[in-house]
Write a structure and sequence with these properties.
Helix content: 25-40%
Number of domains: 2
Shape: globular
Oligomer: single chain
Number of helices: 7
Structural class: alpha/beta
Strand order of the largest sheet: 1-4-5-6
């Protein structure tokens, strides 16, 4: 309540505008590889939405009050590495706020990134932490086999099993942390610089814009895995039983002709692309993991139901429901916002 009160007390006139650009930083991560295995690896032939969406709110002094950025890519460069980091979203926001001398609030939201990883993500950090490869990288050498999943592997709690880095591995680990940090800074800086380019050259803000908001809640049939004692991570279809319904939520805030759409789970790319293709405006932003958390796991698209990736087989959603309900709910809210 205090935050809302403080914000209301600081109300000031502003203009608002939208812009977008393409940035080639993400890559589809559902790969059916040459060994006929499903793995979480870069799939450069897979679908990706490479749209960076930017919304600016400019004050009467022409200094931005706020900058909103949205891009579809998981911020997981330091995953299971023992490093706490805001990753590339934090770097992008920090770069924008520093550029405007701390007078601007920069916010980053995650787009439809359920099947999207950073294209330039490397494994050397986790490898170094776990005690391997304190030597120079070899190009063209046969890759190591993927690690087998430990029983009861749970991505949400996997970090709790991390142990202290052994003394003999610290040098390689610190080098890997620095290399990963440089990559993260590069990604965030590129997003920030493209944002600034849009603000300087492409966005044409308006002084008046009608604001509307709404939300729809709905359910889809759920399923529960039956292999909890020894769960398979990927490349196999686990047994399921009927489970509790999955509670999904679609939200919309419309400012002028800009549609801020939100889903309370991690959504696959093709769901977002389908919504954008059918929306009444080309100024559509889709943020995920927004307004609470769905009891679904990943929200895979209809075309991905047969993927034996960990996202799909770990999802509580039965196939054939979520995609159309999410798209239809968002379109219904968009139509209601015109009344």
């Amino acid at each position: 309540m205090k935050a809302a009160g403080d914000a209301k007390a600081k109300l000031a006139p502003a203009t608002v505008g939208y812009g977008r650009a393409m940035i080639d930083l993400n890559v589809n991560r559902d790969l059916y590889n040459s060994k006929l295995e499903w793995r979480q690896q870069p799939n450069v032939q897979g679908v990706s939405d490479k749209t960076l969406s930017v919304v600016e709110f400019i004050g009467a002094d022409f200094v931005p009050i706020g900058v909103y950025m949205n891009y579809a890519m998981h911020p997981i460069n330091f995953y299971l590495a023992g490093v706490v980091s805001a990753d590339f979203p934090g770097e992008a926001s920090r770069a924008i706020e520093d550029h405007f001398d701390g007078k601007t609030v920069a916010i980053f939201t995650q787009g439809t990134s359920g099947d999207q990883n950073p294209m330039l993500k490397e494994n050397f950090l986790t490898t170094a932490r776990n005690g391997g490869e304190n030597e120079t990288e070899k190009i063209g050498a046969p890759p190591a086999p993927p690690p087998s999943a430990a029983p009861n592997f749970n991505p949400a709690t996997a970090g709790s099993s991390l142990k202290e880095v052994p003394e003999e591995n610290l040098a390689g680990y610190r080098k890997a942390v620095a290399r990963t940090g440089a990559d993260v800074t590069m990604m965030g800086t590129l997003i920030a610089e493209k944002t600034l380019y849009l603000m300087r050259n492409d966005i044409h803000p308006v002084a008046e814009a009608r604001i509307w908001g709404g939300q729809q809640d709905f359910t889809c049939p759920g399923r529960d895995r039956m292999d909890t004692d020894n769960p398979v991570r990927e490349n196999a279809m686990p047994p399921y039983k009927d489970g509790a319904d999955v509670n999904l939520k679609v939200s919309l805030v419309r400012i002028g002709d800009i549609y801020f759409t939100a889903v309370n789970g991690e959504v696959y790319t093709n769901i977002g692309l389908k919504l954008k293709q059918n929306a009444p405006s080309n100024k559509v932003i889709i943020s995920t993991l927004t307004n609470g958390g769905a009891n679904s796991g990943y929200i895979y698209s209809d075309d991905a139901y047969s993927h034996l990736s960990f996202q799909v087989i770990g999802s509580r959603l039965k196939p054939g429901c979520a995609e159309n309900k999410i798209v239809n709910a968002a379109l219904d809210l968009m139509n209601k916002s015109t009344n």
